[in-house]
Amino acid sequence: MKAPFQYKIARALLYLLFRIIFGLEIEGISNVPKEGSVIIAPNHRSNYDPLLVGCCVDSRDVYYLAKSGLFTSKAVACFLRSLNVIPVDLEKPTVGALRTFVNLLKKGKAIMVFPEGTRSRTNKYLKALPGVGYLAVRTNSTVIPTLIEGTYESMTRHFLRRSPLRVRFGTPIYPENEVKSVKEAEALSIKILKEVKRLA
Fold first, then answer.
1. CB 170 within 8 A of CB 144
2. What one-character-per-residue DSSP string does 43-106 give?
3. CA 183 from chain center: how many Å?
4. What percent of the chain shows pLDDT beyond 90?
5. Comparing C-alpha atoms, which of 100, 103, 109 is closest to residue 2?
6. Which terminal CB of the chain, N or C, has fewer other CB atoms within 10 Å?
7. Average pLDDT of the chain?
């Protein structure tokens, strides 16, 4: 599924920024399927994690949610929307946001969902939430556990590649059974998060 031209331009600009200025390193990108519904599931330490991971995937477009507070001006909002960012009030997540992801996956799109549900402010892993597990089974989508390294630190540490900024895509996880409860969805999310940790 080819990415729209506008998305390709915005993604390429971000990639050049992270790669040239901050020394971005990408590993395991071949693990991301070029077609079919996919959930990229990374750890979350910074507001720019979605943009960082999204710019690494050059074979297809990736959709993700971001807090509406990031849409600070018309110019910023236009740029974020060109990157398939969907604004949402993350303090009050709605069923509508979940439904949006389900619809995208049913259309064979790629989305990004954080197993922890929100950003860790301590650089320690948070508890896995059932969302990513539910989406994977509900839509029979492949999950790509993904490790982000370096974004908890100040970007000045990565300037001119003084400290690693790395995204590592892991081996795909394929959902097997129908989720019949929140606890089962959470169990799958826990498994996904464990795979993210194993990539470290």
1. yes
2. ---STTHHHHHHHH--SS-EEEEEEGGG--SHHHHHHHHHTTEEEE-TTS--HHHHHHHHHHHH
3. 23
4. 56
5. 109
6. C
7. 88
CB within 8 A of 53, min separation 6: which ones?
40, 42, 62, 112, 146, 148, 167
Residue pair 67/85 in contact by the 8 Å Cβ criterion? no
With tokens 């960012």, the residue in question is 85
Q: What is the largest CA-CA distance in the chain?
A: 49
User: Would you give the distance in Å from CA 160 to the centre of its chain?
Assistant: 25
pLDDT at position 89, please?
72
Residue 68 tokens read as: 């509406």
Reported as type and span, the H/E element at residue 148 is strand 142-149
The 3-state DSSP class for residue 34 equals coil
Instruction: Note if the pTM is more than 0.85.
Output: yes
Structural domains in the chain plus CATH codes: 5-198 (3.40.1130.10)
CA 56 to chain centre: 11
**Which strands make up the sheet holding 24-27, listed edge to edge?**
24-27, 165-169, 142-149, 38-42, 110-112, 62-67, 85-88
Give backbone dihedrals phi and psi of 37, rounded to 5 degrees, phi first: -70, 130
| Bridge partner residues of 66 (DSSP) | 87
Structural tokens at position 14: 């971000």
Q: Quick one: tokens of 22?
A: 């901050």
Note the residue count of the chain: 200
